[in-house]
Design a protein that fits this description.
single chain, about 300 residues, alpha/beta, 7-stranded mixed beta sheet, 6 helices
C-alpha cells in the first residue's frame, strides 16, 4: 500500500491550498474529493472579492488553483471518503469504494453546503440571482429589489447588510416571529428598506436567464402571489460534509480546531467550511489551508513520520 505524508480530504479552496503548500514543501501528498476540484467555487458565477482578481468566474479560479497544486506533484483522486482511522502513528483513510490510503497526517477539508429550499427554479438559477452568500454577491444587486429567506440570525443580519446595496429587501419567513438575536431583530424592524413577509414560503423561483420573480404562498390560507425581485438570498442553514472521524465537533456538526487548525485528534487537521468558525469565504479557506499544511509538516518532522525523505 502506498503511504503518503499528507492526505487531504476535499479539493475546494482550503484543500487545494493545503495541497499546494504541502507539495511545495516536498511532502508526498494526496487529495481525495468525491466531486471535481474547486468545491463550491465551480458553482459560483462571478467572484470580485478574491485578492488579485478584479473579476473572475468561480470555475476559472478553481481551475487555476488545481493546476498550480498539481504542478508540485500532488495527486488528486475522485472518490468518496467514508472514514478516517488512527492506527499507531498512521492515519487510514477509507473510501466508499473500499480503498484504503495511509498517511502520517490528515487534513479534513470536506466543506459543506447551504440548505436548499428545493423549489422549482432554485437549481436552474443558482449563481444567476439565487445566492447563499450576502458578502459574496450583495454588491451585484445595487439599487434593485431582492429577497432574503429565513428567520434566524444569519438571515436577519444578512438582510440588514444587503440594504447597503439593494433598493429594497424583503424578508420571507414561514413563521410569525424571528429566532434571531434580539439586537439583530431590532435593527431590521427599524430599517426602512426592509419589508417582512410573515407566515410566507417561497414555492418557486422564476426568470428566463436570471431571477425575475418569486412565487410566494401565505401559510395562513391567504392567496399566493408573485414578488418581483432581481435576486434571492437563502439562509435556512448550512450542513457540513462530515466524514467519520473521532475529532470533537460543535453542536451543529462542525469540527472544532485551535488556531493551528489542529483537531482533538493528533495529526488530524480541519480547514475551510467544515471547521467551526464565524466566516466562510474563499479567502479565509485558503488561509486555513496554509496554516494546516505548515503545521502538518512540523508534526511529521517532530515525530519522524516523513515518508518523502
Amino acid at each position: 500500500m502506498e503511504i503518503y505524508d499528507v492526505i487531504i480530504i476535499g479539493a475546494g479552496p482550503a484543500g487545494l491550498t493545503a495541497g499546494l503548500y504541502a507539495g511545495r514543501s516536498k511532502l508526498k501528498t494526496l487529495i481525495i474529493d468525491k466531486f471535481l476540484p474547486g468545491g463550491t467555487l465551480i458553482k459560483t458565477e462571478k467572484i470580485e472579492d478574491y485578492p488579485g482578481f478584479e473579476e473572475i468566474t468561480g470555475q476559472e479560479l478553481a481551475e487555476r488553483m488545481e493546476k498550480q497544486t498539481r504542478k508540485f506533484g500532488v495527486n488528486v483522486l475522485t472518490k468518496t471518503v467514508y472514514e478516517v482511522l488512527t492506527e499507531g502513528d498512521m492515519k487510514i483513510v477509507r473510501t466508499d469504494e473500499g480503498d484504503e490510503y495511509r498517511g502520517g497526517a490528515v487534513i479534513v477539508a470536506a466543506g459543506g453546503w447551504p440548505k436548499r429550499l428545493n423549489v422549482p427554479g432554485e437549481k436552474e438559477l443558482a449563481g444567476k440571482g439565487v445566492s447563499y452568500c450576502a458578502l459574496c454577491d450583495g454588491p451585484f444587486f445595487k439599487n434593485q429589489d431582492i429577497a432574503v429567506v429565513g428567520g434566524g440570525s444569519s438571515a436577519v443580519e444578512e438582510a440588514d447588510f444587503l440594504t447597503r446595496f439593494a433598493k429594497k429587501v424583503f424578508i420571507i419567513h414561514r413563521g410569525d416571529k424571528f429566532t434571531a438575536q434580539r439586537i439583530s431583530q431590532e435593527k431590521v424592524f427599524k430599517n426602512p428598506k426592509i419589508e417582512i413577509l410573515w407566515n410566507s414560503e417561497v414555492m418557486g423561483i422564476g426568470g428566463k436567464e436570471e431571477v425575475e420573480y418569486l412565487l410566494i404562498k401565505n401559510n395562513l390560507g391567504g392567496e399566493g402571489n408573485r414578488l418581483d425581485v432581481a435576486g434571492i438570498f437563502i439562509f435556512i442553514g448550512f450542513v457540513p460534509n462530515n466524514v467519520r472521524e473521532h475529532a470533537e465537533h460543535d453542536k451543529l456538526g462542525f469540527i472544532i480546531t485551535n488556531e493551528r487548525m489542529e483537531t482533538s485528534v493528533r495529526g488530524v487537521y480541519a480547514v475551510g467550511d467544515i471547521r467551526a468558525q464565524l466566516v466562510r469565504q474563499v479567502t479565509n479557506a485558503t488561509g486555513d489551508g496554509t496554516i494546516a499544511a505548515v503545521m502538518a509538516q512540523r508534526y511529521l518532522e517532530e515525530n519522524n513520520l516523513l515518508k518523502s525523505n
